[in-house]
Amino acid sequence: METAGLSRPLVMCLAALTAAAAPASTQTSLMVYGGLTEAEAVIAALEPPANSGTRTGLHAGAAVRMPLLGLIGLRLDGSYTEKGVSLTVAEGPVTANIDVRVPYVEFTPAVTCGTRFVYAFAGPWGAFRTGCEATLSIQTQTQTDDCDEAGLEIESLDFGYAVGAGAGIEIADNWSIGVEASVSRGLSDIDADSDGSDRNNAAQVRAFLSLPLG
Question: Is 80:59 a contact under the CB 8 Å cutoff?
């Protein structure tokens, strides 16, 4: 009888704690973020003396995170991402550097797994190209042209998949800050003149602010 008497307050206490914690774990939130993208377009037909490398661009956007069931949730992202490639062509004593900057507007629906403060996510993305420019640098001379003028025919649409993870800390009631990292892989051919094997790959690192909705 004494054990039963002690267990009743314990059950009531656990129930109260669960009820109090429920709004925080089931609340829809808005995340705004900004960071950098390390991108490299994979060009299958590229041969020496040409070499490709990564280029660093801006990455910013917002996401709505919605809980579904337990640790599983849904995330809807809209972002601005600069992709492209850095090319180096060496011919004898002369080296030419070509920086191809391709900004996109991306939409990514993703499934999340974890808590508000430690989580992973994965999902497909679709992107629309908003511009494209190529900068040619030879010794002290630099020239920037639109990709079409430079003879680069980049497709307007792109799609692929992304996986990532994030961690944050609470700074106020249901407000949090943190960092995320993700890897993006393209699945469609980005060059209209290629044989179908040129892809956009990228890695992103960003800081975020998350606030409750509703």
Answer: yes
Which has the closest alpha carbon to 96: 55, 137, 124, 39?
A: 137
**Single-letter residue type at 130:** T
Q: How far apart are CA 52 and CA 44, in angstroms?
A: 11
Break the chain into its structural domains and give their ranges: 27-44+59-84+102-131+156-212
In single-letter form, the type of residue at position 39 comes to: A
151, 134 contact by CB (below 8 A)? no
pLDDT at 198: 87
Give Cβ neighbours of residue 111 (< 8 Å, ≥ 6 apart). 72, 73, 74, 75, 121, 122, 123
Instruction: Report the C-alpha gap between 210 and 32 in whole angstroms.
Output: 7
The structure tokens 């900057």 sit at: 101
More confident residue, 46 or 69: 69
Q: Pick 203 or 148 by higher pLDDT.
A: 203
- What pTM did the predictor assign? 0.81
Tokens found for residue 38: 């390390």
Topology of domain 27-44+59-84+102-131+156-212, CATH: Porin (2.40.160)
pLDDT score for 18 = 43
Task: Output the pLDDT for position 196.
Answer: 61
